[in-house]
Each structure stands twice: as structure tokens, then as C-alpha cells.
Design goal:
Chain A is α+β, with helices and mostly antiparallel strands. Chain A is built from four helices and four strands; from the N terminus they run E-H-E-H-H-E-H-E. In chain A, 45% of the residues lie in helices and 13% in strands. Classes of the chains: A alpha+beta, B mainly alpha.
């Protein structure tokens, strides 16, 4: 038999949090939570893994630094050797202090844009994408928890949610 | 709550006494040293040991001073998370009166012509008939006139110390009486200190450090010196917290507090690097003789190039790479290693501010430097731990205490 999906609506984040903890201690996984604002400390409870965005940012930053260095070396040293600050050394490392601000800017540019684009793609927030929100009230003052389960566990979960303070329970 | 009162064990106490004894012996032995070859002993006047005393006097006073600044910042911004480590930065700030006294004595010795670190303290440089006459310094004579210089110096030291004593006193009172009256008073006093310190942190650095290179000036210098002292203070606070954690104290300080202190260490390292580099790059780029002399002395003239780049990389690259990840800021061993690198790096940075201007080519990183520094390390550990033992390690009735205990993210 196919799984049932339970949508439980809460009026506050605290009952949602405690219900999620109770479900977790009973070995039931919460599939997702929709909330008007970020709920502090919910990630480990509903099993959201730690984000990789920091590692991505580091890689994008290194890429930006390399591209910036390549650009400056080509423009200022290789293609058109430039006398920087009255010091005609024409070597990249000798003119390094002048290149530091641009290296920094290129690093930040690539890291910031890379992170933003990665985030949009990963969440599929592209032009024309359909909203995944099952209930528009969660953008206002309601909190929604999605639980996917086998039909035989349905009643247990419903009682946990009801006792935990869910104001509405819907089956999809 | 267990372990609320820190016991300054005899073992730790004897350790600090041993370090201080090393310091005292080194300083005495340093004064017995003859002048280096080719230097007139009458001009030299034990310059090496005096310069060392200035390096350590300034560096360690800076730790106490910037702990006071951090304390004022926490009050003025009404910070909640740091309440759990409040007693620690308070204890570190208790070194300020001691450090200020030492700084005062070093400057006084200069005024009494016991040393020649500050050439502008010699009245002969203003005398046209003297062979030591220096026209450029006469332009600054008004600023360096003894009456004005000493008014400033005493005002900084006394007012800083009064603020520090006041914060400490009110903090201990708050433990007994509770309420919010003292809390609001602290916010006002903290803001007042920040305004006073915003100005005097720069001017004190000009008066005591930049004036060693009296012909040279840089508008970045005050901030650069301030950032260097701040990172040293943050590192000292973090290392003290980790020491207490390891001894089983501060059970309410959790990984999130440690992480936040680690972030401070990371961020202020960047502040220092940014200011150091701004000063360097602008002077390097424009290449004006009267400005570039500062870096010429440090890079080419007196053989400090290796030291200068070591300092920059120790204080910039190491903290940046080693503290970048979240896990690193929560790993106690890692933080201790990086903290020690930063403290040594910033001590060397102050060494690099003082030595090229004073002993010039006759610099050594030898037993005199090591011994004097160890003596001061012993002194600051002694003062800080004595203050830690005087009051409960966790404040009792701060309005944000509960919020800080539950600090978590």
C-alpha cells in the first residue's frame, strides 16, 4: 500500500518543535516543515543535513582569486608591462601590494555570486518555478509539518500531533 | 552550580612566581650588559633592555586595556551571550592598572633621561646651538612639550583605570543587589568609555609608539596599534576561558560561547591585517621619502625583513586559514594552538614597532627578549588569576544571565 502524507498545522513554533521531537523519539521522520520564519534549532530535529554552501563558497572564492590573478598578470605584466607606483619592476610578485585589493574583490565577487546562484539552483528558485508551499497560510502566521508514513502508523502519529498541539490535520 | 569559585592553586601561583623571577633576573642582567661595539655607551644607556621593557609594557598593558574596551563594548551594546564569560574578561581587564603603572614608569624614566628611546625627550634637539639640533622635531615641539605630553599621558592612564575600576566595582555590586539600576548605569558608562577611547586609543599610540619614529607619521597608525592590542586581548580572554574549562570551571560556558569568542579572534585578526596592509600599501605605492623611511628601516636598512613578513603571515594567514571553518572554532586544542601563534605574532609585531626605531641595527631576539617577555607573562597570569579567584566565576544577578546560559545556535 502507498504511503500517506499528513499535513499538520500549528499556531506556534514551540508546539511544532516539541511534536517534532516526540515524533523523532518514536522513530518517525518529519519530511519537511513550512514556517513564516526560520525556527531556531529545528534542523537537527527534522534531520536537515548541514549545508555545503560554505565549502562551495570556498571553492568559488579560490576560483575568483585565480581568475583575478590571471587577469591582472596578463593585463599588467604580460601583455602591456606597466610601471606601477614608479617602480618599474615588471614582476608580479614585486607589484603584489597593488594587486591585493583587486584579488580580494575578485574573490568576493565570485564567492558571493557563486553562492547566490548555487542557492537558487539548488532550491530551484528559477523564473517561472511553481511555489512548493502546500498551504499559503504558512507565509503568514501558521506552521505546517509534513509527515510521510505507512497507513498503519497513521493513528499513532495523529494522536502525537493532536496531543502536541496541532490545530488542524489534513491527509493528502 | 558547582565550582563557582576559582581557586588559585599554589602550583599555578608558583609557576607565575617562577616566570616573574626569570623576568626580574633577566632585566637586572640586561642592565649589566655593555653597549654593543661601535656605540657610545653614554648615548646607548642600556637601550636594548629599555626597548624590551617598552615592548612588553605596551603589549601587556594593551591586553588589559582592550579587555576593558571589550567590556565597555559589551555593556554599551547590551550583549547577552557574553555574560557567561563576563568574569573572565573582567579579570583580564584587571591587569590594566598594573600595566598602566608600568607604562607610566617607563615613560617617566625617559623623562628623567635614564634612557634615550624617545629622542624628542632630549631638550638639546630643540637647541639651535647644539650638535643634536633637529629642525623637524622643533616643528612638533608644542605637541611634545613636557607639560602637554604628561597631561595627556596621565589623563589616558588615570581615566582608563578609573573606568576599569568602576566597571569591576559595579559588577561585584550587581551580584549582591540585582535589579537593573546598575545595568543601565553600565550602559551609559560603557558608551562614555567608548567615546573617550575612540580618541585616546589613537593619540596614546602616537604619543608612546609612533613618536619613536618621531620624523615619521601615519594616520593609520593609531588604528593599527589598536587592532593589534584588541586581537591580543581577545586571544587572552579566549585562552583564559579554555584554561578554566579544562580545569572544570565555567560549566555554563558551552561550545556556542567558545565559537563566538573564536569568531571574535578571527574577525579582529582580519581587522588588524586590513589596517596593517592599508598602511603598508599606501606608503609603498606613493613611495614618498619621508613616509617610506618607516618601511625602509624595517625591510632593508636594519635587517628586519624576515621578521616583518613572518609577523604579517603569522597574524594574517595562519588565523585566516586555520580558523575559517566552523569546526575549528569549536575545537579547544585547535584554538589554543592558533591563540598561541597569534599572541606570539602580535608580540613580535610590537617588537617590530619599537626595535627598528630604537636599537636599529643592534637587534637580537635573544635571552633578554625571551626572559623579559616571560616575566611579563608571569605577571599578567598572576594578576588575572588573582582577580578570577576574588569573585564568583559566574555573575549572579545580571539581567541577561539566563539568556547567556541558554546561548545556543
Amino acid at each position: 500500500m502507498s504511503n500517506v502524507t499528513i499535513h499538520a498545522i500549528f499556531d506556534d513554533e514551540e508546539p511544532l518543535m516539541s511534536s517534532a521531537k516526540t515524533l523523532k523519539s518514536n522513530g518517525i521522520r518529519v519530511k519537511d516543515v513550512f514556517s513564516p520564519f526560520p525556527i531556531h534549532g529545528i534542523d537537527p530535529v527534522i534531520g536537515v543535513p548541514r549545508t555545503w554552501i560554505a565549502i562551495c563558497a570556498f571553492i568559488y572564492g579560490i576560483t575568483g582569486l585565480s581568475l583575478g590573478t590571471l587577469m591582472m598578470w596578463y593585463m599588467m605584466i604580460n601583455d602591456w608591462p606597466t610601471d606601477i607606483g614608479g617602480k618599474p619592476s615588471f614582476a608580479y610578485y614585486m607589484n603584489m601590494p597593488a594587486f591585493i585589493p583587486i584579488s580580494f574583490e575578485c574573490t568576493v565577487l565570485c564567492a558571493a555570486h557563486g553562492m547566490a546562484i548555487t542557492y537558487y539552483l539548488r532550491c530551484w528558485l528559477v523564473p517561472g518555478a511553481k511555489a512548493k508551499n502546500p498551504d499559503p497560510r504558512t507565509t503568514d502566521d501558521k506552521f505546517l509539518m509534513v509527515v510521510e508514513t505507512k497507513p498503519e502508523n497513521k493513528n499513532d502519529i495523529e494522536s502525537i500531533l493532536k496531543n502536541g498541539g496541532a490545530s488542524e490535520i489534513h491527509y493528502k | 552550580m558547582n565550582n563557582l569559585n576559582y581557586t588559585f592553586t599554589n602550583k599555578t601561583r608558583n609557576f607565575t612566581f617562577a616566570l616573574m623571577a626569570i623576568g626580574v633576573i633577566t632585566i637586572i642582567a640586561g642592565f649589566a650588559q655593555p653597549a654593543p661595539d661601535g656605540v657610545n655607551p653614554d648615548d646607548y644607556k642600556h637601550m636594548r633592555i629599555w626597548a624590551n621593557l617598552l615592548v612588553n609594557g605596551y603589549f601587556f598593558m594593551g591586553i588589559g586595556l582592550l579587555a576593558t574596551f571589550f567590556m565597555a563594548l559589551q555593556y554599551a551594546a547590551e550583549v547577552a551571550w557574553s555574560v557567561a564569560v563576563k568574569r573572565v574578561y573582567e579579570a583580564v581587564s584587571c591587569y590594566l592598572p598594573v600595566g598602566a603603572t608600568i607604562m607610566f614608569l617607563i615613560l617617566l624614566a625617559g623623562q628623567l633621561h635614564l634612557h634615550h628611546l624617545y629622542i624628542w625627550m632630549d631638550p638639546e634637539v630643540y637647541d639651535k646651538t647644539s650638535p643634536k639640533f633637529d629642525e623637524l622635531i622643533t616643528h612638533k615641539q608644542g605637541y611634545f612639550a613636557p607639560a602637554f605630553f604628561w597631561t595627556r599621558t596621565i589623563a589616558y592612564l588615570v581615566i582608563w583605570t578609573l573606568f576599569q575600576r568602576g566597571f569591576r566595582k559595579r559588577s561585584l555590586e550587581e551580584d549582591l543587589q540585582g535589579g537593573t539600576a546598575l545595568h543601565y548605569k553600565n550602559i551609559g558608562k560603557g558608551a562614555l568609555f567608548l567615546v573617550f577611547f575612540a580618541f585616546t586609543s589613537s593619540t596614546s599610540a602616537w604619543d608612546w609608539m609612533m613618536s619613536l619614529d618621531v620624523h615619521w607619521f601615519s594616520t593609520m597608525y593609531g588604528w593599527y596599534a589598536f587592532a593589534g592590542m584588541w586581537i591580543s586581548a581577545m586571544t587572552t580572554i579566549l585562552l583564559t576561558v579554555l584554561f578554566l574549562k579544562r580545569k572544570g570551571y565555567l560549566e555554563n560556558v558551552n561550545d556556542s560561547h567558545i565559537h563566538d569568542l573564536g569568531k571574535w579572534m578571527f574577525a579582529v585578526s582580519f581587522l588588524w591585517s586590513y589596517l596593517w596592509f592599508c598602511q603598508f600599501m599606501l606608503i609603498w605605492y606613493t613611495n614618498i621619502p619621508e613616509e617610506i623611511i618607516y618601511f625602509q628601516d624595517r625591510l632593508h636598512n636594519f635587517g628586519y625583513m624576515g621578521l616583518m613578513w613572518t609577523v604579517f603571515f603569522m597574524n594574517f594567514l595562519f588565523p585566516m586559514i586555520l580558523l575559517m571553518s566552523r569546526d575549528a572554532k569549536r575545537n579547544y586544542y585547535f584554538l589554543v594552538i592558533v591563540g598561541c601563534i597569534i599572541l606570539i605574532g602580535h608580540w613580535l609585531d610590537v617588537y617590530d614597532m619599537v626595535m627598528p626605531a630604537t636599537v636599529k641595527g643592534n637587534h637580537h631576539l635573544g635571552w633578554v627578549e625571551l626572559g623579559t617577555a616571560l616575566g611579563f607573562v608571569g605577571l599578567i597570569i598572576f594578576v588575572v588569576h588573582k582577580s578570577l579567584a576574588k569573585a564568583p566565576l559566574m555573575v549572579q544577578k545580571h539581567p541577561y544571565l539566563d539568556e547567556s546560559i541558554h546561548h545556543h545556535y
